[in-house]
Prior knowledge:
- This protein is an alpha+beta fold.
- It has 3 domains: 1-53, no CATH class; 62-100; 103-204, no CATH class.
- Helices cover 49% and strands 21% of the residues.
- It contains 6 helices and 8 strands, in the order ααααβββββαβββα.
- It has helices at residues 2-17, 22-34, 36-46, 55-100, 152-157, 192-204; strands at 102-104, 112-117, 120-125, 132-137, 143-151, 166-172, 178-181, 186-189.
- The strands form 2 sheets. Strands 1, 4, 5, 7 and 8 form a 5-stranded mixed sheet that branches. A 3-stranded antiparallel sheet has the order 2-3-6, with no helix packed on it.
- Helix 1 crosses helix 2 and helix 1 (2-17) runs parallel beside helix 3.
- It is rod-shaped.
- The relative contact order is 0.08.
- Zinc ion (ZN) binds next to helix 1 and helix 3.
Amino acid sequence: MKIKCDVINDLLPLYVDDVLSDASRELVDEHIQECGSCRKTLENMTGKVSIPVSPELRKEDTKPIKGLKKIVTKWKWLTAVITVLAVLAILFLGFQYINAKQIDIPYDGSNFTFELRGNSYYLVYHGQGGFLISAGAADGSGEWNIEFSQTLFDKYIWPLYHDKECALRFLEKDTITKLTTRDGKVIWEANEEELKAYKEWVASHPDDWRVRKD
Length: 214
Ligand SMILES: [Zn+2]
């Protein structure tokens, strides 16, 4: 039977194209009456509906269907796995994006304040969310300049789990004389007493990185 099926399978494309001799055509006709597997192959090639057959032959029919079900199940799993991976990739890239894109926050005279809290100076943002700083000092003068920015994460996600304003600890007391933005706006300046305290701190910390001139 198996050898015959192979032969019939070879003939099926010709059968579908209607180029077989009458004798070969009869052979195929006879075979597909008896063989569910070849009939299925033919149906797949032509898209025709099955010829009614006896219950015994039906049993034989179910074998290729089971095989097909296995393939469909495998595809479902593969599709599910690919979908999950795609969703994770999108979430990851989205997270990278909202974390990486830094937007400048221009200082407008009141959106940031420089405050002494305990023994440290803090930068406090009065706008929405958290922020980042980029700061530099002129050698030994105690004068600092600063730029503010925030990511989309800082602006929109950070406030979800912080109910206070964002405050960054910046420098210790007496270690700074002036804070300006990169474009020259003065955020804070030491008064006479604070300047005196700064000079005293410099005198007693000659090797501090903020004092040393290299
Ligand atoms: Zn067959």
